[in-house]
Amino acid sequence: MKHPVTQRLYEYWDELRDTRPAPDRSEIEPGRIRGVLGDTFILEMVDRATYRYRLAGTRLCALHCRELKNRNILRGWSQEDHEALGTLLAAVTEDAAAAVIGISGYTERKQSVDMEMLLLPLHIPGEGCSRVLGSCVALEQPYWAGMHPILSQTVKSVRLIWPDERPAFLDTRSNVATSPVPQLGRHSSAIPAVTALPLAANARQVQHLTVIEGGKS
């Protein structure tokens, strides 16, 4: 986690959940994360193809030059990145993983900005982890922020984190409902295949990502 916003939100979420795979949505207190609210968001999982913004911070909306509420976060990606991000979101909502994603955003003028996105599961009683608490922040604020909207995005790097060194579906302490783990894999960390790292014996391909079995980040 490169950015202080990412670190702060993860620490708050991790403290709030305690020994559970994920905290309840009702437990989130905006006042406790006031300093990072402008970069945070909450998603609602409608189905595997739709993760809709319920809330989006002012700085995040300003960076995109639009109100993000009710927008599907899976819009504006290439086909392969769309599929990879959907798989990551499934790992977060179905198996209580945390995901840190390096992304680049592009304007119609081909201006670019590198950003860091964090995705964390939130539990809804009776629904399971159908909400996602997240943040997305520019690593360096571009001079054109607020003037030229980000129209497309690409995934540059991905890291899945199992906060308790094991996926939630193996945790018998919790009564949180979980679904079978998606194809991204269990106990996994993901990096883009373009890094050209040697493919380990315990690694496999998921879309254009190389998934390597691992544990706690």
Description:
The chain has 217 residues and is an alpha+beta fold. Helices cover 18% and strands 33% of the residues.
Topology:
Layout: H1 4-17, E1 40-47, E2 50-56, H2 58-64, H3 79-95, E3 98-106, E4 112-124, E5 128-138, E6 152-161, E7 188-192, E8 203-206, E9 209-213
Total domain units? 1
Helix content: 10-25%
Work out the helix count.
3
Query: Any idea what the CATH architecture is?
Result: 2-Layer Sandwich
The proportion of strand residues reads 25-35%
Query: In terms of structural class, how would the helical and strand content be classed?
Result: alpha+beta
Strand order of the largest sheet: 2-1-5-4-3-6
- Radius of gyration over C-alpha positions, nearest whole angstrom: 16 Å
Termini separation: 10 Å
CATH superfamily: PAS domain
Question: How many β-strands, per DSSP?
Answer: 9
